[in-house]
Amino acid sequence: MSYTAWILLTASLVGLSCGIIGVFLILRRMAMMADAISHTVLLGIVTAFLITRELRGTHMLVGAIIAGLLTAVLVQWFHSRGVQQDASIGVVFTTMFAVGVILIATQVGNAHLDVKHALMGEITFVPWNKIQIPWLGEVPEATFILSVVLLVVILVILAFYKEWKITSFDPALAASIGIPVVLMHYVFMSLVSVTTVAAFDAVGAIMVVAMLITPAAAAYLWTDRMSIMLVLSATFGVVSAVAGYYIAVWLDTSISGSMAFATGIVFLLSFLLSPKHGILSRYLRPYTVSDA
């Protein structure tokens, strides 16, 4: 595959996995958890480096995932003890991120690890860092990891689709019929953490947050059916990735930033044109007695 094809494939995988996960974040009113986890993983990355003194390897991924899960646990713990969820996210997010920044400034020393390196991945470097995969040959490491993550996300969503649907719309009903709501919550937070960590090192925190939230928010404007919303959100993620790449080429600017910008364009078009909630659709819809 060509250099451009690897970039587009990698970005599309981010759009697919984040788009699917983002639907449940939107439905569960937990959109800002994406932003929180994408920043608090910095603490996990720094801690893994301090233990191993190596900048690459699976230990970095493990450390970041643990930090993401710790974020979810702490947010839920504070919320269960009377702190509002948005306040819980704000407290945990800023505190863990600050600790990570302090550790970088005081403990890392001369190693090439800084806040920009840890949070602002660059997708243009993805095709150069390859690994050997049996039957596939040389494949960019980020592309392979994102492919595995997408497969896991799809399998877990399909295996427990009914449970995800009920717990997202009515947790009280789910608990009353015996669905383990708390366990499902932490499984979902694990998916969010794994997806965020797998994506942000390659494409950057800004694009991860944009892909997790904006395509799903746009899909929410088009349909009330969760299955269709999942397909639309994933599609919007891929469209934003491809369109953003060519916007970046046209303007000679950041690819990840342009892809995040493209998600905003998709949302704006949905906000204007969607048949039920779109501004223009409402304006052009014939006036009826029920509208009075």
UniProtKB/TrEMBL annotation:
Protein name: Manganese/zinc/iron transport system permease protein
This protein's record includes keyword Membrane: yes
Membrane topology: Multi-pass membrane protein
Localization of this protein: Cell membrane
Family per record: Belongs to the ABC-3 integral membrane protein family.
GO biological process: response to zinc ion; transmembrane transport
GO annotations of cellular component type: ATP-binding cassette (ABC) transporter complex
Keywords: Cell membrane, Membrane, Transmembrane, Transmembrane helix, Transport
Entry's transmembrane regions: 6-27, 34-52, 58-78, 90-109, 142-161, 173-192, 198-221, 228-248, 254-273
InterPro entries linked to this entry: ABC_BtuC-like, ABC_TroCD
